[in-house]
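debug: dumping io for the single-chain case to check the tokenizer round-trip. Nothing else runs in this session.
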Amino acid sequence: MKTFVRAVVTGFALSLGAALFKKVAKQVGLDDKPDADKAKDEKNPATNPVGQDGATDPNLRNNRFS
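debug: decoded output
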């Protein structure tokens, strides 16, 4: 019985903590960006410098610098 009460209290505390985090996350700066912003950032070379590699990049051109 003691274990069951601990489990219920722990579950309640975790639920309360999650609710408080959702309220405070924007003010602290820990909130996630919306999906539209993530997709935009993946295409932006300033935020995602790796992009595609040369083997799979269809826009790859052979440039000779000599």
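debug: round-trip ok. Residues 2-43 form one domain.
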